[in-house]
Amino acid sequence: MRAHNFSAGPAMLPLAVLERARDELLDWGGSGMSVMEVSHRGKAFVAAAEATQAALRALMGIPEEYAVLFLQGGAMGEFAAIPMNLTAPGDSIDFLLTGDWGVKAAAEAEKYAGVRVVADESADHFVRAPREGSFTVSPDAAYLHYTPNETIRGVEFGYVPDAGPVPLVADMSSTILSRPVDVSRFGVIYAGAQKNMGPSGLVVVVVRRDLLGRARPQTPTVWDFTVQAGADSMVNTPPTFGIYLLGLVLDWITDQGGLLGMAERNRAKADALYGFIDASGFYSNPVDRDARSWMNVPFLLADPSLDATFVARAADAGLTNLAGHRSVGGMRASIYNAMPLEGVRALVDFMAEFERTHG
Ligand SMILES: *Cc1c(COP(=O)(O)O)cnc(C)c1O
C-alpha cells in the first residue's frame, strides 16, 4: 500500500505519473531502452526535452522573451549562479527575508555582491510576509530576490512584490505550478524539481532574455545562463530522467485542469487542514492568515511531549514524514500538488482521533 507521504522534499509524485514511468521504464517509446539509457543528443530525447519545455511554457504562460533552462545543482546552486549571472563586482542585491531559505540565499549572494535586506520578518520568527508596499526597493539594485513560499515555516506571499524597473528574482522551489502566476512580472524564476515537478537533480530556471549576456567570466560554463540558453541546456549531459519525468508531471497537471485546476485543488486541501487546526484547541499554526502556505503546513501540539508519539502513531496509520524541520520542531505537513484531498482528509481524521485519545 502507498503511504500518504507528507515529506517536504523530495516529495510524493502523482501515482499516475509513477505508473506511467514504470510502464515505460524498460522500453521507452519503442527504443528498446529506458529513457536513462538513450543519448541526450539523440532525436528522441531532444524531442522529449522540447516537448517538456513547450508544456511548461503552455501551463505557466511563459512568454517567448524568456529562456527556459533545465540545469543541475539544485535551488541552492542557483543561490550562487544567479548573482554570478546577474551582478558585477560592487553591485548590490535587495532581499526580502521571510524564512530560512531566503536567509540562505542572501548568505550565498553575499559572496558575490552587496546584500541589502529591505524587509526582514525574522524578529517574530518568520510568521508573516511584509505588507504590500511596506518596503522600498533600491532603484540601483541589481535585482530584488524573494522566496514566494518559505518551505520550512510555511509562509507564502499572497501577492507578487512590486520591484518597479528592478528585475524580480523568485525562488519558487516549493510553490511552482501550484497556482497560476504572471511570469511577465519576473526577471528570473527558479525552482528545484523535487517538490512540485519531479525527482531531485533537476532545477528549472526561467530567465528574461534581456538579462542574459552579463555573466561574470568566472561563471562555470554549466551555470552560465547565456551559454545554456544558446545550447538548449545541453552544454553537457542534462538530468535526462528528471526532464522526462517533469514531462509526465506536466501532462498530469494538464489533465487536472492546468494551474487553475491545481489552484482549486490546493486551496481546498489547505482550507481543510487549516480549518481543522484553527477549530481545534489542541493544534495550532502560528502564521498570519493571509500568509499561510498552501504547500507546507507547520503545526504545533499543545503538549510538545507528545510530538514523538504523534509522529509514530501517524506512521502506523500510513501518514509519513510529519515531523517538522529539525530547526523548528513540531509538525509539518507538506501537501504539494501530488497530495490528493483524500490524503489531507486522512490526516485530519488521524489528528482528530489523536486529540480525542491524547488531548
Ligand atoms: C527545497 C528548497 C531549496 C533547496 O533546494 P535544493 O534543490 O535542495 O538545493 C531552496 N529553496 C526553497 C524555497 C526550497 O523549498
TrEMBL record:
Pyridoxal 5'-phosphate binds at residues 101, 151, 171, 194, 236-237. The keyword RNA-binding does not apply. GO terms for molecular function: O-phospho-L-serine:2-oxoglutarate aminotransferase activity. SUPFAM superfamilies: PLP-dependent transferases. It is an enzyme of class 2 (transferase). Binds 1 pyridoxal phosphate per subunit. InterPro entries: Aminotrans_V_dom (IPR000192), Pser_aminoTfrase (IPR022278), PyrdxlP-dep_Trfase (IPR015424), PyrdxlP-dep_Trfase_major (IPR015421), PyrdxlP-dep_Trfase_small (IPR015422). It is found in: Cytoplasm. It catalyses: O-phospho-L-serine + 2-oxoglutarate = 3-phosphooxypyruvate + L-glutamate; 4-(phosphooxy)-L-threonine + 2-oxoglutarate = (R)-3-hydroxy-2-oxo-4-phosphooxybutanoate + L-glutamate. Its EC number is 2.6.1.52. Residues 5-347 form the Aminotransferase class V domain. Pathway: Cofactor biosynthesis; pyridoxine 5'-phosphate biosynthesis; pyridoxine 5'-phosphate from D-erythrose 4-phosphate: step 3/5; Amino-acid biosynthesis; L-serine biosynthesis; L-serine from 3-phospho-D-glycerate: step 2/3. Its main location: cytoplasm. The modification N6-(pyridoxal phosphate)lysine is found at residue 195. Belongs to the class-V pyridoxal-phosphate-dependent aminotransferase family. SerC subfamily. Catalyzes the reversible conversion of 3-phosphohydroxypyruvate to phosphoserine and of 3-hydroxy-2-oxo-4-phosphonooxybutanoate to phosphohydroxythreonine. This is Phosphoserine aminotransferase. It comes from Propioniciclava soli. The gene is serC.
